[in-house]
Write a structure and sequence with these properties.
33% helix, Alpha-Beta Plaits, four-stranded antiparallel sheet
Length: 69
């Protein structure tokens, strides 16, 4: 599982990740938890970050993606 800290454009980012194989699990404050499409959590966290940054709004969002430990 990974989590994403994100304050803005939450609905759009959740939708983007779900369209790309991630499954939204829950939200706790600014943390959004996702099940990943593969078992390689580090690669999936990197892929989620790349997907967000590739969007027109991605370069102006302040966010981070981490693996749940």
């Amino acid at each position: 599982m990974i989590f994403l800290n994100l304050a803005q454009m939450q609905d759009q980012v959740v939708r983007l990740l779900e369209e790309n194989g991630f499954h939204f699990v829950k939200k706790a404050g600014l943390k959004h938890y996702f099940e990943t499409p593969t078992n390689n959590l580090e690669d999936d966290a990197r892929r989620a970050k790349e997907l967000i940054k590739a969007q027109p709004y991605g370069s102006v969002l302040y966010f981070n993606v981490e693996v749940v430990k």
